[in-house]
Amino acid sequence: MRTKIAVSAALGLGLVFGAGAPALSSNLTSTDEESATDLEAAVVPGQELERVTDGKIEKGETAYVDVTVATLWTDAKAPRKVDKPALGHPVDLDKWNKNLKDAEVRRGLTGKVETQAAYGSEVTVLKTKGAWAQVAVKDQSTSKNKKGYPGWVPKKQLVENDRFGDLKDDQPRAVVTKKKSELEGIEFTKDTGAEITFNVDLPLIAQDVDDVRVALPGGGAAWIDVSDVDVYDTDGKPEKPSGDDLLETAKKFDGLRYLWAGVSPYGFDCSGFTYSIYRAHGIDIPRDSGEQATTGKKVAEGDLKAGDLLFFSTSSGTVHHVGMYVGDGKMIHSPNASKDVYVTDWKSWDTGNEFSGARRII
């Protein structure tokens, strides 16, 4: 259930937030004033938002993405010199995109990158090797690993924080709906190097008329403009979308450049695009097109509706592309490294007669 009211009873006694935000309490009544004064005096501002960690990223642990977008590579040797801006903390994705201006350079990512994960995403550490960790992204389902989509990332792009995990489990959620937004009024942390983007999902700890206050994976908290997010109860989800709802979200990215393995407003691949659009509406589908092609129910070509997924396969039957049906014989998709997200007549686009079926998810 979406809500636009001030959060109450959200956190334990004594949390103090930035100017204009309420201190939140779940334990007190009007008869507890004397004990409340004693307890509040013992609380250090920001103490309940400090990162809880042993300072290590080790096999079997849960960690969180602590950069705008983490790129998961096939191995630590996969990145090229042009990919350096995507490897730091913070990342510089504008510079990386500039480095990838040439289509052939972008095409060179094929086979080197597995997927991406947005700020705050939960991952399981599968292995570590030097400065790198192989992780599985929890919210990206795949047959490759039951824990989530696997790939290698620099350890410095991850953070261990048990407190943030508890907040994600227990608090309402603020989910970014704009392509990009900003963290403002950051407090109780020196870790300020991330931008927040579409589908970032952070624990809500306070809300006023203009802003929401969220906990950060590296500790501390920040404000986000309330118009940039949807807010949900702890176990809440968006209402079931119509096909037109899905298309309205998809068309926000019309003209966005293709990026192999991309799942963010810095670039999508074909299945990253459809995965992300459905996820924005509370519907989880597999990360890759081949497995998306087994989701939902089969739809005959003559019965297509807006929001249905269209699949295209090689002569051997391997699904290699997916788009979303718009209506009137058109689809919106992110086709390849030489193209952007765009709407096209899907039969005219399918010059190789590779259409292999459609699926309805909603």
UniProtKB/TrEMBL annotation:
Molecular function GO terms recorded: cysteine-type peptidase activity
GO BP of this protein: proteolysis
Superkingdom of origin organism: Bacteria
Tagged with keyword Translocase: no
Extent of the signal sequence: none
One of the Pfam families matching this protein, by short name: NLPC_P60
Keyword presence, Membrane: no
Gene3D superfamilies the UniProt entry points to: endopeptidase domain like (from Nostoc punctiforme), SH3 Domains
UniProt xrefs under PROSITE patterns: NLPC_P60
Keywords: Hydrolase, Protease, Thiol protease
Family per similarity comment: Belongs to the peptidase C40 family.
Name of the protein in its database record: NlpC/P60 family protein
